[in-house]
Amino acid sequence: MPRLTTGNRSVAGKVALITGAASGMGRATAHLFADEGAKVAVTDLGAERVQAVVAEIKAAGGTAEGWVLDVSDEANVHSVVGGVVATFGGLDILVNNAGMVAGGPVDGPSYLDDFQRTLDVDLTAHVLTIRAALPHLKVSGEGRVVNIASTEGSGATKHNSAYVAAKTGVIGLTRALAMELGEFGITVNCVQPGPINTGMTAVIPDEAKTKFARRRVPLRRYGEPEEVAQMTLSLCLPAMSYVTGVNIPVDGGLLIQNT
């Protein structure tokens, strides 16, 4: 009888482009993919921040290069994707991690501007990067796209409607593009981080984090960026060839809490 465990569980040699990779979950994802042998395109706003992550990866023996990228700028997106392909010889994996939060009441004076900017960065940018990457993801017949949403896409927080709308859209976009791109062997999946220790949550006092986690998270703590990155990596393995259109919470159980 032939062995049944024939799926490749390694991303070694794969080219992965990660947006928002200079900090938080993006930085953890870039490091993890590099540790697993992938060639990593580190992209984010700010050349110094990007190069700092590239230097960290190279110092640890990994392969990485960096590009400054505004994910809401279509021309910039196409230029960077072209640069990544020219540098590494292709593109196999796209992780749409870049994001922002602009909160406030719906009748606030800057609400409409904040709403549009949030949609541009947190939702429309996913479409721009996927469109630019698509010709290259089709080449291998096993391209991988992972969109980073949020538990706010399945719930809501007061004065956070722009972010909630964008992240809800990311989940819907994931399902729709999984349907559309499946014929090319490309999987499109979504990761839903919950309360994670990142720059976005750094402004929350530790006491408030502890209280929230004890009341709302079954694992009773905030998660770490690498814990999200591990799920992202798993969805990008060649062996994960029959999983697409799914939305996986990495939230310590927050979304199952109904009391």
List the total number of helices: 7
The main β sheet shows up as: 7 strands, parallel
The termini sit apart by 50 Å
Trace the largest sheet across and list its strands.
3-2-1-4-5-6-7
Into which percent range does the helicity of residues fall? 40-55%
User: What order do the helices and strands follow?
Assistant: EHEHEHEHEHEHHE
State the secondary-structure class: alpha/beta
DSSP summary, beta strand count: 7
Shape: globular
Strand content: 5-15%
Radius of gyration, whole Å: 18 Å
Overall average pLDDT: 96
Low-confidence stretches: none
Description of the molecule:
- With 259 residues, the chain is an alpha/beta fold.
- The chain has helices at residues 24-35, 47-59, 74-88, 111-140, 161-181, 206-216, 225-236, and strands spanning 15-18, 39-44, 63-68, 93-96, 144-148, 187-193, 247-250.
- The longest helix has 30 residues, at 111-140.
- The protein is globular, with a radius of gyration of 18 Å.
- The mean pLDDT is 96.
Q: Concise description?
A:
This protein is α/β, with parallel strands linked by helices and 259 residues long. The chain has 7 helices and 7 strands, in the order βαβαβαβαβαβααβ.
